[in-house]
Amino acid sequence: MPGEPAAEAAQPATDPEGAGGPGRLRSAAWFAARGRPGMIYRSWLRAEGFTPEVFDGRPVIGIANSWSELTPCNAHLRGVAEAVKRGVWQAGGFPLEFPTMSLGETLMRPTAMLFRNLMAMEVEETLRANPLDGVVLLSGCDKTTPAMLMAAASADLPAIMVTGGPMLNGKFRGADVGSGTHVWRFEAELAAGRMTQEECVAAESGMARSCGHCMTMGTASTMACLAETLGMQLPGSAAWPAADSRRLLTAQQAGQRIVSLARDGIRPSQILTRTAFENAIRVNAAIGGSTNAVIHLLAIAGRAGVPLRLDDFDELARPVPTLVNLMPSGRYLMEDFCYAGGVPAVMRELGDLLDTGHVGVAGRPLAAEIAGARCWNDDVIRGRADPLLPPGSGTAVLRGNLCPDGAVIKQSAASPQLLRHRGRALVFDSIEEYHAAAASADLPADETTVLIVRNAGPRGYPGMPEIGNFVLPRTLLERGVTDMVRISDARMSGTGYGTVVLHVAPEAAAGGPLAVARSGDPVALDVPARSLVLDIGGDELARRLAAWAPRPAGQHRGYARLYVEHVLQADRGADLDFLVGSSGCDVPRDNH
Ligand code: FES
Fold it and tell me: How far, in Å, CA of 462 to CA of 580, rounded?
């Protein structure tokens, strides 16, 4: 009959027992059964127009796509997904793309970080509930990468990540401008009267010239590089610009590779080992990576069951020099980093500082992957003999009575003369209170003042926003002050800079000592000694803490309530306590 398809060439692979057995692909539990159970699964999927061969026992590969027009950094991922599909078909798999929650760093309020754990939970459950043998994770913007890695670690389904790549270098009036980094600079210039509003508007489009994520070494670039270092994305793929054809090439290769990972049953638990995290911490130091990497790696490690402590970040990074000369620590941008050789060139230069026996999704030891890596611009990726910053200049972990469970400071983005500093505290209970005061002409502060903003931690805000590098008071900016010591229980954008102490734990809302600091208290910061002290004496601090009472809890419902009641402190990755660990991807019960 015209229009009627020819007799169907292939029958589904059938499983007499109707469920996946040892050594079988997971999807067989859905598609291989004879009779009604298998027919239900196959028939409805064929409504999408697939031929029956797709059920012949080939690996079913999910493509978890965080595309969204509300996440500008991920808005090009539908095209990337098509390239992944090409690779999956090419390798004999059956690709099925599905949307995930998406987290747009710039648009979401109160902060995208509030929803990282929700996205991780949503992706994890989607992976587990569906007939998938493997998944390609498409991410880009800051929180989408860690959320997907957390999900993959908990579901422990064969997985490979493809990040969307950075934007092309920003350009404005003949100079490089970095997304994020120059927002802070332009804000300070505007506040100081050295730039007009019209000039700022003109700079906006020059700062976002193409699709892709922020092209500084902000959190998105950092997490993309670390996903590669962890072995969860293909070697050499993190730095390709989003607009470069090799971004799609790498996506197609990932589509091919995931089919092998699914067939061989290679799971994230075999890749996300303690060795992988140690390498990631060292590479993070070498690239001048974001402080947010600390929280995200702790959370991913928690899902993978890898014991990782906040202090590991300091201890493991101490022998590592900062090699990568990118904003906000240096002067170049991700496009330059890519053309200079990207992550493989950095890892090759780090050499014996890494464990090159680690095997990631590519299936070969790191030593083999980076053996041929070359650096093509030694001002962008410096050698160990001529680093951008000497060993021990990365993110430092502070201890002291103001942060008993730790705090962090990104030394490479701080002012060297402020790394040892003693000053009087000026304390604000919220960022809004600070902003109002900072605009006033008679703020009682000078350049020695230590500015403290509290109640911006995971529980207190809630969601631990990126306000830690809050702009300096207007009067001081006008006097030409460019940096001051700032302390908070918040985070800082990876594109931000300044002498800012972040992630103070426990946070004020959890009754940490930050909650009882008062304006006028002496504060001593000594980064070389890794110390942060509220110098009021132990007895006085104990008296204040005993008298402390929590602020009235906000009116939260739904997810925000769940978050506030279960979020862990920053030193444990700010995951939800009940999400730590893995549930694996055993086939759920059949309801048909
Ligand atoms: Fe998405 Fe910077 S806002 S990566």
Answer: 19
**Strand intervals (E) in 517-561:** 522-526, 531-534
- The per-residue pLDDT for range 285-335, each reduced to its tens digit, is 999 999 999 999 999 999 999 999 999 999 999 999 999 999 988 999 999
Residues 185-196: b if buried by 16+ CB within 10 A, e if exposed: bbebbbbbeebe
Cβ partners under 8 Å of residue 328, min gap 6: 178, 180, 181, 216, 217, 218, 288, 413, 494, 495, 496, 497
Instruction: Calculate the average pLDDT of the chain.
Output: 93
How remote is the CA of residue 238 from the centroid of ligand 1, in Å?
Answer: 15
Tell me the helices (H) and strands (E) count for the chain, helix number first. Answer: 20, 14
Which amino acid is it at 204? E
* Structure-token pair, residue 12: 């589904």
CA–centroid distance, residue 333 to ligand 1 (Å): 14
CA angle 560, 565, 569 (to 5 degrees): 100
CA–CA gap between residue 263 and residue 58 (Å, rounded)? 9
Q: Which amino acids bring their CB within 6 angstroms of ligand 1? A: 73, 105-106, 141-142, 179-180, 213-214, 218, 220
* Helical pair 274-287 and 342-350, crossing angle rounded to 10 deg: 100
Q: How far is CA 312 from CA 307, 308, 318, 320, in A?
A: 10, 7, 10, 13
Ligand 1 centroid to Cα of residue 183, in Å, is 12
Whether residue 20 is predicted with pLDDT greater than 70 in this model: the reply is no
- If you measure from the C-alpha of residue 188 to the centroid of ligand 1, how many angstroms do you get, rounded to a whole number? 20
Q: Which of 67, 73, 177, 225 to mutate to test the pocket of ligand 1 (most atoms within 8 A of CB)?
A: 73
- Helix 219-230 vs helix 144-155: crossing angle, to nearest 10: 30
What is the radius of gyration, based on Cα positions, of the chain?
A: 25
Q: Which residues pair with 422 in a beta bridge?
A: 524
Least confident of 16-20, 41-45, 113-117, 335-339: 16-20
Q: Pocket of ligand 1, candidates 179, 182, 327: which has the most ligand atoms within 8 Å of its Cβ, to mutate?
A: 179
Question: How far is the C-alpha of 106 from the C-alpha of 223, rounded, in Å?
Answer: 17
